[in-house]
Structures are given as structure tokens and as C-alpha cells.
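Suppose a classmate hands you a notebook page containing two proteins, each written out with its sequence and a corresponding row of C-alpha cells. How would you begin to make sense of it? This section walks through that situation. The first entry is reproduced here exactly as it would appear on such a page.
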Amino acid sequence: MQVAVLSDIHGNWRALKAVLVDLDRLGVSEILSLGDNIGYGPEPAEVVRALRARRVVSVMGNHELALGSRSYLARLHGAAHDSLRLTRDLLDPDALHWLENLPAWLVHRGARLVHGCPPQSMTVYLFSPTPNRLQRLFASYPEQRCFAGHTHSLELFTERDGVVGRERLAAGPLDLDPQGRALILAGSVGQPRDHLGRQAKYLLWDPAADSIEVRALDYDVHTTIRLLHERGFPAVNARRLGG
């Protein structure tokens, strides 16, 4: 049975919709989110409504954290800060309550889910970790598989018999080492910043086969860009999408 692993949707309903259409076509109904469901994008209410309707299992990202923490919101850079202020105005109290009460991390089907960095950080990035840091990270949690987001990149970190490795993920399927451990960065649905381009990205995970697949999808980016401008979001948000 395949499981969809999504990360960093960031209020981009058009990108999420393309993913959901793809999942329906593939017959995949179990969906996990690694957080940052909102922020940057112009349609957060539509995103939250769809996630809740699909009973998506989600952990909290740093953008959800900022909705409920004024002190953390104040630490964010201009575009993130300004986007979240606009996002709050676009969400009703029920949606805000759901977002602000997501768990910091979960273990689901034997895999650890965390937004930023294992074992449970929503805010720490995994940009170019050194071998020593990777060894410390793998020692900090017991699960063989861990999925994380936050960097918007697609990468695989591995550990076997004390030896760690790192590789970029390509589009398509990949068998995981059954004897090793894997920490997988799932890219971004709504704000991709990876080496593969600006399509919406997500992972298909098959726990039984112990494999993953990177999916890259076109979506209605022009409407997203138009709505970003119309709703007053920072111009950099649209530029990151190609507009």
C-alpha cells in the first residue's frame, strides 16, 4: 500500500490540487504532511479545508508555529512574516485552531515524521549537514526511516554500520537499503526550490516494498501568481514560482 508524503504546501492550493488529482488517479488515499501547510501562498483556507476533508495526518511546521507564537513570528524574515499576517486574515478560527494544535512530530507506520530536523525540531534546517552531524542525528532517534521537510529540497541521507551518505533525489522510484537507515527530505508541493525545477513535488512511499518515488507535477501556477499579487503577498513569493 502506497502512502503520499507531502511537505511545504505553503498555501498553494493549485499545486495541492494537482497532487490530489494525481493521488486519486493512482488510487492512493493515505496522505501525510510534514508541515508548513500555510504561509507564502494565497489560498490557505482552501488548503486546510482539503487536508481536513482528506483526513491528512500532519505534523507542525515552523509557519504553523508562527501562527500561535508571537515571539517566533517576530523572528521570521520579512516575506515569511508578512505572508503569515496575511494568511491569518484568510483563515477562520476553526482552521487556525487545527493548524495551531498540530503535533511537533509523529511516528507513523514505523517512520518518524518531523518538519525540520529529527528528532523533533520544527525550526532547524538540514542544509548540507556534515558527516559528523549526520551521525549525531541518526543517533538521536530510533526509527529506521525518517521524513523531513523545511529545506524545500529533495535529498536522501543514509546511515549503515556507522557510515553516512548523502545524495540528491531524482524524479522516479528508488529502493531504500533494507539494512540501512534513511532520512529523506521530501521537497515542497507549493514552494519548490530543488534541482528539478518549479513543478509541485511530493513522495510516494511504499512501506512494504521499502521504496520511495519522487513525483513532479505541473499545476496552474499562473492563477497562484495572479492571486498572490491580488491579495497583496510579498512579490518574492511570486518570483519564486516563476512569476
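The notebook's second entry, a different protein, reads as follows.
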Amino acid sequence: GGFWALMSFSDVFNAAADFRAFTTTVQNVVPKVAFTGRRPPLHLDPPEHTPYRRVLNDLLTQDRADLLEPFTRRYAKELVAPMVAAGQADICEAYSSRLPIAVFAEWMNLPPDMVESLRTSAKAFNIAVQSAMDDIVKVTSLELYELARTLIAMRKHSPLEDDFVSSLLAARANGDALPDELIIGCVRQVLVVGIIAPTVMIGSIAVHLARHPDLQAQLRDDPSLMPAALEEFLRLYTPYRGFARTAVRDIEMGGRTIKAGDPVALTYASANRDDSVFPNADQFILNRPNIKDHIAFGVGPHRCAGVNLARMELSVMIEELLAATPGGFELAGEIRPTRMPEIGALSVPLRFL
């Protein structure tokens, strides 16, 4: 449909941080796929987004991620074992598309029947978005909305402590309860926001490790290197290239005029490979001196709320894959890449040695 793309680190950083000039209230991804109502906090700017964001921040702390780590590791082991026993598997289909759903369901206190519904609908939604099947995108999105409504009804009847939906229902903005339609939108957004990116990210990391058996062995032999390696993987294989904003006014950038109302893609994947900020940006460099400056999780008021959970989940998934494959692994077929708004590997066949 036509859009601007910001590619340099400074342009992406500045636009993401300046919600008064670049709003998320009109269009939040390129290409535009949302067709229903607003889904906080992603579809709102401060101060309207703040009550929803506060609930998420309170329930996505490092302590909460630490509490979920044993469940995540146990489930990762359960998924890895049959893959390795079979000798090969599509790491995205059998591993990275499944574990995030289970972890998210645990975090949201979903009953078992809803976990299966979420797995089915979220997978179908992701495939439809990646395949540009707009009709199926709408159908599966509505299924996710129905899941959100069901969950909200359950929590209204029987609220839980330290529960995302219960906390949303109890939250207040200027003394008033949050609007029902925005609570529904927020729950619908959260149901999928932490599922697709880890699928793509682990796929990309698996490709890199398959092509660099020396790095496989290094991380397998010394797990203490994992935190530093993960940050460089996040920079190098940032899974989003199409998060979007809309210009609030005419803005001059790079010798061009972005008109008020124009959609603007914040190309995080490009920003994190800006050689002026990250020298030799196309290379994996363990313990890169300024790795803390990467913006794989975004920046500004819409920086990823689930950063602690994401880091824990990704680390565990890589660690358990390496631990279960002492002989290593290699690519065993064609890699299928994603479409926008994600960037990375959607299908990665591996052979375990």
C-alpha cells in the first residue's frame, strides 16, 4: 500500500522514542493487517496506553520470568527428546512454535482446553499472515478474540491473584475501570504477541549455529557464554522489520518529506546492522563492546514489555537444544523465510548428528 522505511539506527531509534511525532494509534505494522478494534497497549500512545502497560510491567518482571524458568526448561526437554531420537526435525514446527505457546499459557493461567485452542488458532493466524491469506487472517483473528472474551468471562466470575486478565479487570484509569472493548483488545493482543517472534528468532539462531559448528561447540562446552551470545543473536537476527508508526505532522528525514498521515516502517533489523553503530555489523561477534545498545526489543514507550520472559525463554531453548545434541546438528533442507512484518526463518529442517 506504500510506506516509508526508516533504516538507520538513529532514525529508527528517534522515531520509536518520539510518540508525539510518530503515533502508533493509526497503524502499528507494515503491511497493515489489523481490521478490528484497538488493542492496547500497542495501539495506544501515552497516557492512554499507560494503565495497560503498567499491568503488563508488574507481571513481566525478572522475578516472574525466573519463576517460569523451571517449567520452560522441563517443557523444552520434552520437546527436544523426540526430535533428537528421530534424527531430524523442523526446529520451528516441532520446537520454537510450540514452547512459547506453552510458556505463555502458563503465564496467563490458561486451563488445558484453552491451551489447545490457542495453539491451533495462533498457528493458523501466523500461517495466514505469512501467506497473505487475508480472509483466513480475519477468521483466525476473530477466533483469538473469542478466546479473549471467554477468558475475561472466567476471570470476572473467578478472579485470580497475580493474573494478567484479573489485574486488567481490577485496573483503574482516573478512578474508572478500563473499557470492556479495550480489555478484550488487550487480551487478544497479548495472546499472540509473545508467540510469533520467538518462533522466528530460534529458527534464525538454529540456522546460524548449523552453519557454525565451532560456535555450537563453544556454547555447548561453556554455557556461561549464553547471555552474551543471546544478545548478539538478538542484534544480528532481530525478528522485526515492519513495526510501524504514522507521521503526525510533515517531517523532514534524510532529505525527504514524510507527509502527515504517511505510514512509516521502523526497520529494527536494519538499525541493528548499522555499521556506524555496530562495526562489522553483519558478523557475529561474541562480547561485542556496545551490545547493550541494540534495539531488538524496541525503544521508547512501546519497548517490549516481555523482555525478561523473552530472554529467559530463548536462553533455555538454545541451552536445551545444545545439551541434547552433543554430536551437533546441521541443516537438512530448504530454509523458508518469513514475510513482513517479521524477518527470519519460519521453517528450518535440521539433522542431528
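A careful reader of the second entry would note: Residues 6 and 82 are 43 Å apart (CA to CA).
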